[in-house]
Known about the structure:
Blueprint lengths: L2 H18 L18
Amino acid sequence: ICKECFYSAFEEEIHDVIVGNQLFKAGERVAIAASGGK
Length: 38
């Protein structure tokens, strides 16, 4: 799978989870963090 396809699939999956589970409301502030695992 190419990098662009991976990013697209990952973004779509995350979006579906957020919308499907109503995790956030309009106007809320959200912090996102990622770890490189080191």
